[in-house]
Description:
It is a single chain. This protein is an alpha/beta fold. Helices cover 49% and strands 21% of the residues. It has 5 helices and 5 strands; from the N terminus they run βββαβαβααα. A 5-stranded mixed β-sheet has the order 3-2-1-4-5. Helix 2 links the parallel strand 4 and strand 5. It is globular, with a radius of gyration of 16 Å. The two termini are 21 Å apart. It is an enzyme of class 3 (hydrolase). It is found in: Cytoplasm.
Amino acid sequence: MAAAGGERRILGIDPGSVRTGFGIVAVDGARSRYIASGVIQAGSGAFAERLHTIFTGLTEVIAEHAATESAIEEVFVNRNIQSALKLGQARGAAICACAGAGLSVAEYSARAIKQALVGRGGAEKTQVGYMVRTVLGLQGELREDAADALAVALSHAQHDRFRRQMARSSPGGAA
């Protein structure tokens, strides 16, 4: 699905059970343009209400900005399994909002996102934020969750361009 002029609008999501970042970029060929970004504050109330806030917030973002596809960061399990489970449920609420709106959902590890944007999977968050601002021509600071979500969207666009290029160059691929 594409917006005006063949433009794709990619919703990137940095899920969290307290704060969920979102970022939307318009992609037309190799060009990416900033549309919107922000943070859905789920707060610290009852967990079911927080999940509902994430779901309804993203549903509104999708409708308001005419997103045509989505990408979300995968869960990274470090030490605290309870935090990982809550993060997984927040991802589920976000994925359901996207699927309910008819969007495809791509999933990327934090390492793959950093690799696509910075060129190395172990990049620091400040490097990722710098690249997001540079690629999109943004001035000033972005909230960390919003910058991370924009990085997810840009990473998806980069991975998609690479997949299309590989398909064209493979035997039997489209020219």
